[in-house]
Amino acid sequence: MDVLVGCSTGVNKIYNIHKKTPTGLYGALNTTSELNVMTYGWDSIENNEDYVFYGYTDGILKYWNQKEKQLIGEINYGQSIKSIHPLNNDKLLVALENGLVDVKTLTSPITTQLTPMNLPTLNKKKNSTASTLGKSNKSKQIEQLIEPVNTQSFSLNVSTNLSGFAMNPSKDKFAFGGKDVNLTIWDLEKQVKTYVAKFKHDFLNLQEPVSINVVKYMNEDKIIIGSDFRIKAYDLRSKTNRSSFLDVSFSKHPIQAIQYTNQREHYFYASDSIGKVFSYDIRTGRQVGSFKDSTGSVKDIAIHPTLPLLATVGLDRFLRVYNLDNRKMLHKIFLKQRLSTVLFSKEEPTNEIAQEEEEIWKNLDENKNRVDNDNEENGGKNRSISIKVTDNMDSDDGEEEEEEEDDDDDDAQEFPMEADSDDSDFGLGDDDDISVKKEYDDDSDDDSDEDEKPKRKTPAKSKNGNNNKKGKNNKGKNNSATKKTSQVLKKKFAGLKKRK
Predict the structure, then answer these.
(1) Region label for 472, one of left (φ > 0), alpha (ψ between -120 and 50) or beta (otherwise)
(2) Per the CB 3.0–4.6 Å rule, which of 4, 73, 447, 452 could disulfide with 343?
(3) CA nearest 213: which of 224, 196, 198, 225?
(4) 331: how many CB neighbours lie within 10 A of its CB?
């Protein structure tokens, strides 16, 4: 299963967490801007995960085909991009830091180009209404025109600044917030404001400061925001009560990311700027558990669409994957660059380890059946195996020496053995011979050899206190040289005896 990771420097990586190997690398290194947001392409496209949008702090939007590692196109918005949402009918919504929400309709095919259409505005008129003027019975029809509305490509100036942005699941409304900008919801089709959250006041009736960093829809009716160090949740069904039904003090540090999944409908997950990742129960507002081992700011959180997996990335350059059930860390991968965004692929991993084990057991069963069939054909008879043991006389030196083929066949001894039918796995034939060489230690030499050979004199030490190097160099001689010297010594001893 692949995980797409966006680096703040502009390089994008694809990593397979089960094979533990990188599968893709594309993009260009850019130190002047940082990556803010990353999202997949239109849902209407087949294999939409092959197409990815990237938004940067310098206002550049890039559209990549990650499968072919090809840049399809880019658009310069001139302001830092906070959010990207592909809409229906080949539309693209981009939210900018200055409070501008831009919607563009792109020319098809959207898989090979990124070109906005130039479309005229569409005017809508209200029904004519009658009004009576003065005492006369004359009535005049007054037509009231609404301002021109463009449903194809338009821009909405919704705020002076914008930090958090999100769209509802049906993609017909969007919510946002920022510094001193409380939670606000707009209708995208009508292009009007539909909801504004109520500011809270303290005991001195002073308005509490608001600085919304993150906005996340749970469903069509509930929404979560991260404001400075607190997490708040709102119920959008209530038309009179616009206050939050949940207000939790999350951390002493700013909130960086909030994530929610339908797999755990009563829980949400959030991170801050010092590496804390917590899960909360939205019904009670209590902390359920934490995902440990992160250091530094956790910039983004992603949850797999179908599997209980949670991934985090941050400034410590590690990609971590956790189990949602027990909050244990499953994978920890060092990716070298500072990481800012992460996305899971929708595909589920194949259990390759189980497949390999099945193949191994299948091969073992086939080998066992083959051996049983061979035993049945042989009638269960035992096969005789002869083992030949030869004496190999090594030299006194401990180093490896070349062996000579002058051993006599008379010294060889044969030990007949019988092989059971179960030992047929070795694949030995009826006439197979095995030669085994006896190895003796230096201490196990025969006394007869010691009598025949004269004792060597220990070399005298030199004045410098070093041993005689000639004795060490003699260790490199082979067996033939030692045998010749022994024969010469025997002849000299024989000559001395005759003189006596």
Answers:
(1) alpha
(2) 4
(3) 225
(4) 16
